[in-house]
UniProtKB/TrEMBL annotation:
<dbReference type="InterPro" id="IPR037171">
    <property type="entry name" value="NagB/RpiA_transferase-like"/>
</dbReference>
<dbReference type="InterPro" id="IPR009051">
    <property type="entry name" value="Helical_ferredxn"/>
</dbReference>
<dbReference type="InterPro" id="IPR003741">
    <property type="entry name" value="LUD_dom"/>
</dbReference>
<keyword id="KW-0408">Iron</keyword>
<keyword id="KW-0479">Metal-binding</keyword>
<protein>
    <submittedName>
        <fullName>L-lactate dehydrogenase complex protein LldF</fullName>
    </submittedName>
</protein>
<dbReference type="GO" id="GO:0046872">
    <property type="term" value="F:metal ion binding"/>
</dbReference>
<dbReference type="InterPro" id="IPR024569">
    <property type="entry name" value="LutB_C"/>
</dbReference>
<keyword id="KW-0411">Iron-sulfur</keyword>
<dbReference type="InterPro" id="IPR017900">
    <property type="entry name" value="4Fe4S_Fe_S_CS"/>
</dbReference>
<keyword id="KW-0813">Transport</keyword>
<dbReference type="Pfam" id="PF02589">
    <property type="entry name" value="LUD_dom"/>
</dbReference>
<dbReference type="Pfam" id="PF13183">
    <property type="entry name" value="Fer4_8"/>
</dbReference>
<dbReference type="InterPro" id="IPR017896">
    <property type="entry name" value="4Fe4S_Fe-S-bd"/>
</dbReference>
<keyword id="KW-0249">Electron transport</keyword>
<keyword id="KW-0004">4Fe-4S</keyword>
<keyword id="KW-0677">Repeat</keyword>
Length: 456
């Protein structure tokens, strides 16, 4: 199925679509308010972008420095070239400790590597401890947003889910009651877990420490209680020095949820006494993306989700319509690099309005990259005939003045007299929800020539 077909499914529930759209727009509004409260916001964005430029140009150096420092701190550092190797490494650590149940905080990298499914096949139970992640895990769904994974669900649906799976009162949908029920349910899991897995927001090359940002404290709870802690990160998460952290934590909280800082910004430098700390550094196609000059900027992403909250297409098509771990505008420029044939249509899931680039805290030129991916899709011959044939015709007409005038006149006559079904039918998805304006008697050129005769 294409993005458009999946989006059509989401749009069938009009009330949900409106509510999804409004909820995300509210988050965008909160972001705007807090961002406008600090005069140096644009300078901060530029600084964040410049630091990331430096990181991308010296990635090997910073990663090796991180490994040296982390190892000196007593951390075991692992390297994984792809998702399969990442999963094998995590499993081997767990197998060595005979762990059959783990707690995991939100990590888009482990989603990307399908770690949960892999560990389940190996007989290991994975409990996602972020509330939104736990909800979608109970529903056996992937996340629909990178910061708010269950944003597509109404509180009544969550109430029903908890009634069926956690034994809460039937019909209860009060968020405070449901959250308390989730806390009690998760507390047992935290206490029983022998290992905890987290993602990594930032890895500091200078110190060898990692930073994990959550709003629920669930990553901290898991890591502090379990003797074995495993942190999984993409190679692009490294930053040079501790002093750069302040730049990114200020950008991240404000852009993600309109908060001055994420509630729990936790630093982990070494294993607990008697415990083990592992960091798994994963490539999984990132080096290839780094080598694509026009698209390497996408690796600057700090996963704030702001581009999703602002995108008119994402807000009205839902995260699942992207069929990729990272949805929305940033997902649409990352996924074609992984599989152009499968995800090439995502480059067209955009109005190219540029709002995503405007809000991006690290100034990724997202809409320009979407446009470039469109050209790549076309050059690779992956555009459907329904697009290539009309576009070839339009190209011929638009490049010949006389032909353009004739076709314009013919279209005006045809549209004025043709039966409605010729224009508004199943072959024309544009016309399903729109009406053409009234057809004018003359073209703009004719009107201009007639009304501005004296000036020629
Ligand atoms: S591309 Fe920019 S706005 Fe979108 S998630 Fe990444 S950092 Fe945030």
């Amino acid at each position: 199925m294409t993005h458009a077909e999946r989006a059509a499914d989401f749009l069938l529930d009009e009330a949900r679509t409106d509510w999804h759209d409004e909820s995300l727009w509210q988050v965008r509004g909160k972001r705007d308010t807090i961002v406008h409260a600090i005069p140096e916001w644009e300078a901060l964005r530029q600084l964040g972008s410049d630091i990331k430029d430096n990181v991308l140009s010296n990635l090997d150096t910073y990663l090796e420095q991180f490994e040296r420092q982390a190892t000196a701190n007593g951390v075991t550092v692992h390297w994984a070239k792809d998702a399969a190797e990442h999963n094998r490494i995590v499993h081997s650590i767990l197998a060595r400790h005979r762990v059959n149940r783990i707690v995991k905080s939100k990590s888009m990298l482990t989603e990307e590597c399908h770690l949960n499914q892999y560990l389940k096949q190996q007989g290991i139970e994975v409990i996602d401890t972020d509330l939104g992640e736990r909800i979608i895990q109970l529903r056996k769904e992937p996340p629909s947003h990178i910061v708010m994974p269950a944003i597509h669900l109404k509180k009544e649906e969550i109430g029903q889910l908890f009634y069926e799976q956690l034994g809460t009162d039937e019909g209860a949908s009060d968020p405070q009651y449901l959250t308390e029920a989730a806390r009690q349910h998760l507390r047992e899991k935290f206490l029983a877990a022998k290992a905890a897995i987290t993602g990594v927001n930032f890895a500091v090359a200078e110190t060898g420490g990692i930073v994990v940002c959550t709003n629920e404290g669930n990553a901290d709870m898991g890591v502090h209680l379990a003797p074995v802690q495993i942190h999984c990160m993409g190679i692009e998460k490294v930053i040079p020095q501790a002093e750069h952290l302040g730049v990114f934590t200020r950008l991240l909280g404000r852009s993600a949820t309109g908060q001055p800082i994420t509630i729990y910004t936790s630093h982990h430098h070494r294993p607990k006494e008697g415990g083990e700390m592992h960091v798994v550094i994963v490539d999984n196609g990132r080096t290839e993306q780094l080598g694509r000059e026009e698209f390497r900027n996408s690796l600057k992403c700090i996963r704030c989700g702001a581009c999703m909250n602002t995108c008119p297409i994402y807000r009205r098509s839902g995260g699942h319509s992207y069929d990729h771990t990272i949805p929305g505008p940033i997902g649409s420029i990352l996924s074609p690099g992984i599989d152009l044939k499968k995800h090439g249509d995502l480059a067209f899931a955009s109005t190219l309005c540029g709002s995503c680039s405007d809000v991006c805290p690290v100034k990724i030129d997202i809409h320009d990259q979407l446009y470039k991916w469109r050209q790549m899709v076309s050059e690779e011959g992956l555009l459907p005939k329904t697009k290539t044939i009309p576009l070839a015709g339009a190209g011929t007409v638009l490049s010949h003045n006389g032909l353009y005038n004739i076709m314009g006149k013919a279209a005006r006559v045809a549209l004025s007299h043709a039966p409605r079904v010729l224009v508004y039918n199943g072959m024309n998805p544009w016309g399903k929800t729109r009406e053409l304006p009234e057809v004018p008697k003359e073209s703009f050129k004719e009107w201009y020539a007639r009304t501005h005769k004296s000036k020629f």
